[in-house]
């Protein structure tokens, strides 16, 4: 037996270099047989696949697998093609009558399938295999079908790289847009501040209140307080405690206040908004 010659390294099958001459065609037309399934075992004799001169036989791996690599003994008299995208399919076609070779397929799950290819145009039986479905016959091979692939076809790897590059570019574009939006907001923010509140400044000074202002969403009160005053909102002449954040002398109220007051014990400073909307 001639040594096996690798057809593919990694993934991607190419048509083998072929001589320009070929044997004479068969004396009778070849007929395709119905698709059949062959059981392949690493410990048993490889099954024979009947191939027809100038005809294509499709070899199909199990649903869970893709072709990772292919080796063959005769790459001169036979054409092997798995297309340009990783798949389950390999097409084989003999170019010389009465030829034979072996084909060794390695799947992305690490399974190995060996078949014997034989050209049958001179046989009394004029049928050739049009499609052969491979079924692993070893328990270990069957178990590997349920596991993750151990080989990544080059086409899939390249696709994953391109997707990663595209995702990184999209993330960078989104970040740049957010930064531009933030810069625009910062540049326009001072124009959204309104210092349109009035209060008794004498009482405010006694309590420690220094300033009150608002933007389009919040109301802010700043001061130097010996004790944190309670903050009330007044609506329809009725006061109510409201939620706020307080840090380093700054009240941040998550709404625009029209009327309210600060109070500590009997000390009280009322304020109200004088500006429009």
UniProtKB/TrEMBL annotation:
<dbReference type="InterPro" id="IPR010258">
    <property type="entry name" value="Conjugal_tfr_TrbG/VirB9/CagX"/>
</dbReference>
<protein>
    <submittedName>
        <fullName>TrbG/VirB9 family P-type conjugative transfer protein</fullName>
    </submittedName>
</protein>
<dbReference type="InterPro" id="IPR038161">
    <property type="entry name" value="VirB9/CagX/TrbG_C_sf"/>
</dbReference>
<dbReference type="Pfam" id="PF03524">
    <property type="entry name" value="CagX"/>
</dbReference>
<feature type="signal peptide">
    <location>
        <begin position="1"/>
        <end position="22"/>
    </location>
</feature>
<keyword id="KW-0732">Signal</keyword>
């Amino acid at each position: 037996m001639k040594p096996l010659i690798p057809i593919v390294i990694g993934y991607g099958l190419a048509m083998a270099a072929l001589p320009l001459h070929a044997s004479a065609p068969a004396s009778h037309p070849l007929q395709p047989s119905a698709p059949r399934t062959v059981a392949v075992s690493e410990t048993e004799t490889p099954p024979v696949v009947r191939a027809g001169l100038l005809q294509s036989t499709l070899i199909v791996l199990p649903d869970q697998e893709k072709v990772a690599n292919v080796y063959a003994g005769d790459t001169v008299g036979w054409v092997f093609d798995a297309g340009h995208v990783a798949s389950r399919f390999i097409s084989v076609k003999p170019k010389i009558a009465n030829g034979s070779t072996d084909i060794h397929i390695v799947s992305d799950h690490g399974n190995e399938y060996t078949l014997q290819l034989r050209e049958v145009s001179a046989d009394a039986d004029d049928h050739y295999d049009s499609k052969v479905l491979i079924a692993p016959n070893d328990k270990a091979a069957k178990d590997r079908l349920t596991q993750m692939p151990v080989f990544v076809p080059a086409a899939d790897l390249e696709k994953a790289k391109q997707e990663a590059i595209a995702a990184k570019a999209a993330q960078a574009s989104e970040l740049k847009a957010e930064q531009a939006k933030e810069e625009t907001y910062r540049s326009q923010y001072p124009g959204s501040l309104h210092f349109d509140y009035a209060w008794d400044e004498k009482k405010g000074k006694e309590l420690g209140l220094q300033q009150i202002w608002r933007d389009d969403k919040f109301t802010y009160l700043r001061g130097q307080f010996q004790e944190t005053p309670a903050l009330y909102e007044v609506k329809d002449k009725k006061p109510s405690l409201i939620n706020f954040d307080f840090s380093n002398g700054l009240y941040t109220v998550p709404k625009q206040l029209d009327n309210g007051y600060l109070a500590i014990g009997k000390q009280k400073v009322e304020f109200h908004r004088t500006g429009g909307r």
